[in-house]
Amino acid sequence: MAQSKINNNTPDLRILLRNFFIELTLYGILVVGYFLICLRYINDYLTNMFHNNLVLYAFVALILIVAQGILLEWVTSFLLDQFKLDRLD
Amino acid sequence: MGDIIFARSVQARPIGLKGIVMEFLVAGVSVNPFLLAGIGLVVGIMGGFFGVGGGFIAGPLMFWMGVPMNFVVGTDLAHMTGKSIVAAKRHRTLGHVDIKLGLIMIAGTILGVECGARLIEILEARGIVDTAVGSAYMVILLAISIFTCWESLRAIRMIRTEHLDVKDALGFKGVTKYVQKFQVPPMISLPASGIGSISVWPILGVGLFTGLLAGVLGVGGGFVRMPMLIYLLGIPTHVAIGTDLFEIMISAGFGTVTHAIKGNVDVIMALVMQTGAAFGAQIGAVLTRYFSGPRIRLAFSALPLIGVLMVLFRLTGGGAAH
């Protein structure tokens, strides 16, 4: 498939795929960890906020969602750089 | 650890994953978190691969699980925001996002959504909203499905018979040629999409039309926008997917805030879905690297049919679809 596109200067597809699975595993651990932290520490605050201040709740909700998308990706990239692993992209 | 964390939120019963339910305090419902994450994973892969929000699948499934309809709409938008951020970010590193194109389209989309909402009020006043919207929805989706299938098969055949060594052959270029010949100022260039010069108006038009559909039909419109970007503006398939996700990210983010202010978002439920969706979006986005444009479009052509079935189900009284 993509094997033919790979020339001598680019890393082997198998290594890249292995790195991608490492990346996914790291990312998966972080995503689940993030969710569990939110559930453990701010679930009650969020529920109270929902009943008392919907505007604040709306912005906190957006921040939590965006943070998950951006922050965890950044942490994963940082860890991959530390491990000196090439990314599939 | 599990006992401490899940003490208030989950009552696990020893009968496998089917028996695990989690109480979502904001929405006031108890549903299986693994099923929610599974839905997220499926729509995440689809979103990353096709550039669609996936609300037309996630919405009815959440409703079927017992989530109240107002929370279905708001929470689905919230998880869509997170998933689109992950997928758009991944597509950006692959060079598949045209930010300039996305930002111009958003202006048209906002206007279109407003027009669509007003059109809905008119149709509601005449008492024909369900029939009119449902019929229009089915016709549009069927047309997209048939056309995309025909075009992508033609493109694949062209690549084989004419031995074209191109990643993104198009089997139909008629409209694109006219749109790119439309030289009404202001003209801009879209280097990320490989377009030297194009008028702003067709881009705004695409945004307006998809926004109108989103306002009338209550869907994100990704599965309409993606083919329009390819067939009308001549955007390469991979860039259309990435740019579509970029637009969904902004519009769904805006929708999340407005719905959350109205009390329609359970953010913990959205995070559960996003756990699967973020994972799926990464896989879907990376998968696009290994498929040519026509093959992605051929696979995409089946998607609108799912939407058609959902509307048919609702119109025949089978349940409420999103």
Can you tell me the residue ranges of chain A where pLDDT is under 50 for at least 5 consecutive residues? Answer: 1-7
Structural class by secondary-structure content of chain B: mainly alpha
Structural class of chain A: mainly alpha
How helix-rich are the residues of chain A, as a percent range?
A: over 70%
Distance, first to last CA of chain B: 37 Å
Helix content range of chain B: 55-70%
Strand content of chain A: under 5%
Largest interface: A-B, 39 and 41 residues
Question: What is the H/E order of chain B?
Answer: HEEEHHHHHHEEHHHHHH
Question: How would you describe the shape of chain A?
Answer: elongated
Kindly provide the radius of gyration of chain A, computed on alpha-carbon positions and rounded to a whole number of angstroms.
19 Å
**What is the residue-averaged pLDDT of chain B?**
79
Query: Alpha-carbon distance between the termini of chain A?
Result: 16 Å
What's the number of helices of chain A?
A: 3
- The percent range for strand residues of chain B is 5-15%
Biggest β-sheet description of chain B: 3 strands, antiparallel
Strand order of the largest sheet of chain B: 1-2-3
Gyration radius over CA of chain B = 20 Å
Total strand count of chain A, please? Answer: 0
Oligomer: heterodimer
Count of helical stretches of chain B: 13
Task: Give the SSE map.
The complex is a heterodimer of chains A (89) and B (322).
Chain A: H1 13-41, H2 43-52, H3 54-82
Helix pairs in contact in A: 1-3, 2-3
Chain B: H1 2-6, E1 10-11, E2 21-24, E3 29-31, H2 33-50, H3 55-64, H4 69-93, H5 99-125, H6 129-161, H7 174-181, E4 187-190, E5 195-199, H8 200-217, H9 222-231, H10 237-261, H11 267-287, H12 293-300, H13 303-315
Antiparallel strand pairs in B: 1-2, 2-3, 4-5
Helix pairs in contact in B: 2-3, 2-4, 2-11, 3-4, 4-10, 4-11, 5-8, 5-10, 6-12, 6-13, 8-9, 9-10
Describe the structure.
- The complex is a heterodimer of chains A (89) and B (322).
- With 89 residues, chain A is mainly α.
- In chain A, 76% of the residues lie in helices and 0% in strands.
- The longest helix of chain A is centred in the N-terminal third of the chain and has 29 residues, at 13-41.
- The two termini of chain B are 37 Å apart.
- In chain B, β4 and β5 (195-199) form a beta hairpin.
- Chain B has a 3-stranded antiparallel beta sheet with strand order 1-2-3.
- With 322 residues, chain B is mainly alpha-helical.
- Classes of the chains: A mainly alpha (89), B mainly alpha (322).
- The A-B interface holds A 1-2, 20, 23-24, 27-28, 31-32, 34-36, 38-40, 43-44, 46-47, 50, 54-55, 57-62, 64-66, 68-70, 72-73, 87-89 and B 4-6, 8-9, 25-26, 78-79, 81-83, 85-86, 89-90, 93-94, 253, 256-258, 260-263, 265, 267-268, 270-272, 274-275, 278-279, 282-283, 286, 289-290.
